[in-house]
Amino acid sequence: MRIREVRVFGLFDLFDHTITLNQTDRVTIVHGPNGYGKTAVLRLLRALFKCDYEHLWTTPFKAMEIDLVDGQTLRVEHDPTPLKDFETPRPRLRVQLRAASGVTHAWIGPRDGSQAISRFFSSTPSAPTDPSDERDWRVGLALDVGFSIHFVDTQRLHRKIRGDRHRDEAPSVVESIAEELAATVAEQQAAYGRHSQELDRTFPRRLLRREATPVLSIKELHDGLGALEKRTQRLVAVGLLDRQDAASASVETIDEEGREILSIFVADSARKLAVFDDLLARLELLHDVIRMRRTQRSVEACLLVEGDTDRRLFEKVVDLARCAIEVCLNRSFALTVLAELAATRTPGVLALVDADFDRLSHVVRPANIVWTDTHDVETMLLRSPALDDVMREHGSTEKCDRFTTKHGPVREALLRAGRGLGYLRWHAHFVGLPLRFEDLDVAKFVDDALVADEDEACRVVCARSKLPPPQAAILRSLAGSLKEPWHDPWQVCCGHDLVEILGYALRKTLGSRSANDAKADVLEKDLRLAFDRRWFARTRLCEDIRACQAANIPYSILAADA
User: Fold this and answer.
1) Domain assignment of residue 417, yes or no
2) How many domains does the chain have?
3) Of the segments 287-301, 466-480, 496-510, which one has the largest average pLDDT value?
4) Residue 119: CB partners within 8 Å, gap ≥ 6?
5) Sign of the C-alpha dihedral computed for residues 228, 229, 231 and 235 taken in this order
6) What is the rounded distance in angstroms from the CA atom of residue 67 to the CA atom of residue 77?
């Protein structure tokens, strides 16, 4: 038994999609612009047949219908009737199975993420619709109508989702960061593909026209091919290149014309592989760190951080005599190093990374990872007394007092101004949309009262990301659908965005600094310099690190007075 058609209504409160599956070739390609819900539809299908009802509850859609080739239809919808016995009334989830004869069986469950719906009425037409006769609806389909379905996880789909994992899905740190790491690698592999196609396309023309490529001697060809082989082996070793993609050639029994062709081949292959140079250096550094930690035999602990600025910040509170701080370039690499070391049971290693949207997404934090209290290190600093010191250094006391009297505390104003960008970042992260937020001109969408025009902010981001203008309104709506009143803005807002807005305010509203004095990198540096060890001792981050120390004696990370 197979699926004939999938229909989703009200996806993100914007889209109605119908996907008719190709029953002849049994291959169906779903395509469309970024952000329109291609992956979201696949996730809904996966969630339904995995009984991941928490995902069905938390994804904004009105209903989904799945037609089977035998005439049966499975329908899932958000029942708008709220329950009264919850602290916050929420809709329920209705699951219906409509047989070809017209008989319908349904089950309505509470929207409670702590209790997954695991049973459903039998799909047998003669079965009584009595709750005492419930059965797992998936088993009913498989046994009574011969239906079974399998979904193959890809890196795009294999994202850690909210709620408890099922018992047949073992939690893995690698799984939770694979998509982030894959995105970086995918960019370079795509560039490699484009560069390879261009060189291959022009190869005949360059050969016939004898375009300037030095003809190498036999020894130079041997050396060049040997260097290419070593370089290829390095790329294969770190997973950037498949062995079947590796270039190979032989200089045995070669004539003059062959030397000319091979000379172009060697030059082209070197140019193709050069695309990976930067990423290869980063991955090899990562592997060097892993090997170093694996061979370590002392009681020295290891703290993995995302970047060099994090290292300089946390050196103030770490016992450097007993703990080495290793910089892993970004969050993905830090967690990858940790996963490798955990696999070899290397003790005394802890990763300190930005929380990003993990708390809002209800991701369960593994024992050997600690998160920042807020979205990232920069928001932690802005929440701390360091911001007050920076304001005194860069701002005007009179202007700051006037602003506070009229518009409220500066911190709250920054959060209000940056919240829309935060949700836009969250949506982009969730669907894998490569939006560009670097060096935004916040003056285009933030006024002197630090009130942000979120529609204009979305248009500015889309313009920087080279997306067509019509997509701005769609993205704005999709990002807005993520908003919940219980969300902590300190978890939503990105620190880099808030620092950019702070710099604008210090130039316009809170002071009269020059553009250079109020640049984001200058302010972030001053925030780190104003970092107070005494305040750090009161943070959840400090508490979590101390708990890890207590569970991993004799390894020690924090200084005694931290």
Assistant:
1) yes
2) 4
3) 496-510
4) 107, 134, 135, 136, 137
5) positive
6) 15
Is residue 365 assigned to a domain?
Answer: yes
- Its pTM stands at 0.57
**306 and 230 fall within a common domain:** no
- Torsion, Cα 414 418 419 421, to 10 degrees, reads 180
Is 560 inside a domain boundary?
no
Q: Is the dihedral of CA 382, 384, 388, 390 positive or negative?
A: negative
Angle at 84 between CA 82 and CA 89, to 5 degrees: 50
Give yes or no for residue 345 having a pLDDT over 80.
Answer: no
How big is the chain by its Cα radius of gyration, in Å?
Answer: 28
Quote the mean pLDDT of the chain. Answer: 76
Instruction: Name the phi and psi angles at 205, rounded to 5.
Output: -65, -45
- DSSP-based helix, strand, coil % in the chain, nearest 5: 45, 10, 40
Cα–Cα distance measured from residue 12 to residue 224, given in angstroms and rounded to the nearest whole number: 54
* Residue with more model confidence, 330 or 472: 472
Q: What percentage of the chain exceeds 70 in pLDDT?
A: 70
Q: Is 454 inside any structural domain?
A: yes
Most confident option among 149-163, 236-250, 419-433: 419-433
| 8 A C-beta contact, residue 366 and residue 482 | no
Backbone phi, psi, residue 76, to 5°: -125, 130
Model confidence band, residue 46 (pLDDT cutoffs 50, 70, 90) = confident
3-state secondary structure of 17: strand
Peptide bond into 554 cis (omega under 30): yes
Give residue 91's identity as a one-letter amino acid code.
Answer: P
Q: What range defines the domain where residue 307 resides?
A: 301-373+543-551
Residue 521 and residue 390 in one domain? yes
User: Given the structure tokens 């910089």, which residue do they identify?
Assistant: 327
pLDDT in tens, 264-275: 888 888 888 887
Whole-angstrom distance, CA of residue 524 vs CA of residue 502: 10
Mean pLDDT, residues 494-504 taken together: 95
User: 122 Cβ partners below 8 Å, 6+ apart?
Assistant: 105, 133, 134, 135, 140, 144
Identify the bridge partners of residue 11 per DSSP, sorted by sequence position.
Answer: 15
Q: Are residues 239 and 93 in the same domain?
A: no
> What whole-number distance in Å separates Cα of residue 477 and Cα of residue 151?
29
